[in-house]
Structures are given as C-alpha cells and as structure tokens.
C-alpha cells in the first residue's frame, strides 16, 4: 500500500510540474504575440476594484488599531493622574470620598469605551477583511485556469490544422479543451457573482465603523464631561475651604500693632502684575493693609489703596503704598 501511495504522489507531482511548464510556455508565447490571449476587461476592472478595496480596508484596520492603542495609552495616563491626586489628597480635605469615587468612575469609563470600540467596530472590521485571502487565492487560480484554457484551445486548434489527421489525438485535445473550459468557467462564474457584491459591502463597513466610533465617542465625552465638572466643583470648594481656614495673623503681626490709618487687612488670592507705577504687584498669599484714599474722588470702583504687610513689618512705614484690584483679594 505504501508503494502505491508513493506512486500516486509521484504521478501527481509530475502532473503539476507539467502544468506549470505548459503555463509558462503559453504565457511566453502570449507575450511574444505568437498566441492570442483571452481577455475580459470587465473582470479585470472588478479585480482592480478588489485590490483597491483590500488596500483601503487594510489601511482602515491598521489606523483603527493605532487609534485603539492611543485610547489605551490615554486610559493608562488618566489612571496614573487620578491615582496621583488620590495619594496627595488629605483625608480632611473637602470631598475626599467624592474624589476617590470620580477616579474609579473615570477608570471604568475608559475601560468601557475601549471595549465597546473593539466589540462594535474592530470585530466587524476583522470579519470583513477575513474574506479577502480566500477570494484573492481564487482570483489567482482563475488566472492559472485561464492560461490552461488558452493553452488547451491553442493545442486543439494546432492539431485540427495538422496535415496528418489523428482522430484520437483530436478527440483527446477536444476533451482536454472541454475540461479546461469547464474548470475555468466554474471559478469565473463564482467570482463574477461575488466581486461586485463584495465591492458594494465596503459601504456598510464604513457606515458601521464610523457611526460606532462617533456614537461611542459622543457618549464617552458626555459622561467624562460630567465627571470632570464634578471634579472641578470639588476643587473650587477645596479652594474655598483653604481660604476660609487661612490664619488672619501673619508673621506675628496683630491688629493692635497696626497704625490707626489701616482700615482692615486683605489677602491676595490671585497673582496680580502691576501695570502702572501707582499699582501694587501682588502674589497669591500676600497680606495687604488697606488704607483710605487721601482724596475719595480719586478712588475707582473695585480698586483699593494699601501697602503690603511685609513692608510695614520691615520698615514700620506706609510709604510703599499703591492701588490694587479688590476682586484679587479676600478680606481677613
């Protein structure tokens, strides 16, 4: 049995080698113009569209996977950022539990976003592209079978034109031609049916992909926006807590030590860069002793006159006075 198997395999190998030689000879003759070649312009156009469709789909898949990788990277960076905030956030600060909860919800939101992109876009894209290798292989096979058909057709014609008629050879050549034509036409018919349908299916892929991405991005950013708004509100209240708990006595100076011309003290809550020589330059945290204007008519709405407490403590005078915006400070 083993010897029989070897013989069958050897015979099949020899047959395949002979087919390749015959095809090679046929293609050489066609290129030299010594043998006509069966052409199908419409099918060649379908193949060109197939190749373009495959290239476009592969590029879309590659770019989408890069997009997914970027989403994953953003998720990791976001998680590290929120973990950093959670570690630095003192337990007695306002909204500690809410900050931890926002970090957890943000992490879950990123996870869901990435997984939904995979489920709703990547999987269908992979399924779509999985069709192409088999069809590409059958297109290549059709080309080989077309060469076989042309070769059988030329061989049959050659034998028919031979001066010495050999009916057995003619019958054998005709039989080979019929077999080659049948094999070619079967694969050709299937591809003629499939390629236009496949070409039209690309629209569905693009619609599904970009509708899914657009919808998932919109929902993700909407939900993330709510979490960010909550976090921003907590930070605002934390800043208010800080200002409310700030001490009203700085560097050992008490109200009893201040000159009687001082009306009250304020604390700068924002930096302010002086834009004129009569203005004070302030840094957040500076304490300012508020003074009355020598001429009340010179006071503009929203502006105060004062001198930095640090200057008073060092020099015990109020000469370095200037104006500053009231809304950059908080009264102590």
Number of strands: 5
Tell me the fraction of residues in β-strands, as a range. Answer: 5-15%
CATH fold annotation of the largest domain: Substrate Binding Domain Of Dnak, Chain:A, Domain 2
Secondary-structure-based class equals alpha+beta
Integer count of domains: 2
Helicity level:
55-70%
Across the major sheet, the strand order is 4-3-2-1-5
Sketch the topology as an H/E string, one letter per element: HHHHHEEEHEE
Distance between the termini: 106 Å
Low-confidence stretches: 248-252
Number of helices: 6
Largest sheet, if any? 5 strands, antiparallel
Subcellular location: Cytoplasm
GO molecular function: phospholipid binding; tau protein binding
Pfam families: BAR (PF03114), SH3_9 (PF14604)
Keywords: Cytoplasm, SH3 domain
